[in-house]
UniProtKB/TrEMBL annotation:
Its main location: membrane. It is found in: Membrane. The lineage of its organism: Bacteria, Bacillati, Bacillota, Clostridia, Eubacteriales. One of its GO terms (cellular component) is proton-transporting two-sector ATPase complex, proton-transporting domain. GO terms for molecular function: proton transmembrane transporter activity. It comes from Fastidiosipila sanguinis. Keywords: Membrane, Transmembrane, Transmembrane helix. It is a multi-pass membrane protein. The keyword Repressor does not apply. This is Permease. Gene3D superfamilies: lithium bound rotor ring of v- atpase.
């Protein structure tokens, strides 16, 4: 079976459109997290050049924007499970259900990348704060986590829509 035949089979029902939504959610979260973690890592390197003892605290700040990648992967997995890809029953998914799953993925597709990149900006500022006032790490963590709230909302909406299609 060729590539075109596989695409025809996927898009003959709702499976292809559902899969597209899940893949876009995973890509959005992964891409945004990769960019975000790199940005905080660059800032951390400058701080660690001045005070290597801050490595553990800087690493925690760098890890925070990585969660959006996990959220995107979770949305993809939910689509794979609910659409029937994991048990090879994807041919049974109606076009209506596939479109609804795709629409359910959109909050994650739209929110995960920018939220991780914006979270990286706050986390980078938090890493710089650690250099001057290491005892203020909890404040930097809370402010960085505030940006996470919107990624969690997007994840929640996506998962609930996918589950109830």
């Amino acid at each position: 079976m060729g590539f075109i035949d596989i695409l025809k089979e996927l898009f003959a029902n709702g499976a292809g459109i559902a899969l597209l939504g899940g893949v876009l959610a995973a890509a959005s979260g992964g891409w945004g997290s990769a960019v975000a973690v790199a940005r905080v890592g660059k800032t951390s390197m400058g701080v660690l050049a001045e005070d290597p003892a801050l490595y553990g605290k800087a690493l925690i700040m760098q890890a925070l924007p990585a969660t959006q990648g996990i959220y995107g992967l979770l949305v993809w997995f939910m689509v794979m499970l609910q659409a029937g890809f994991l048990n090879n029953n994807y041919a049974d998914l109606s076009l209506h259900s596939g479109v609804l799953m795709f629409l359910g993925c959109l909050p994650s597709v739209i929110v995960l990348m920018p939220s991780s990149i914006q979270q990286a900006q706050v986390a980078s500022a938090g890493v710089q704060l650690l250099l001057r006032r290491p005892e203020e790490q909890s404040k930097a963590l809370v402010m960085t986590a505030m940006v996470e709230t919107y990624a969690i909302f997007a994840l929640l909406i996506s998962v609930l829509v996918i589950l109830f299609v």
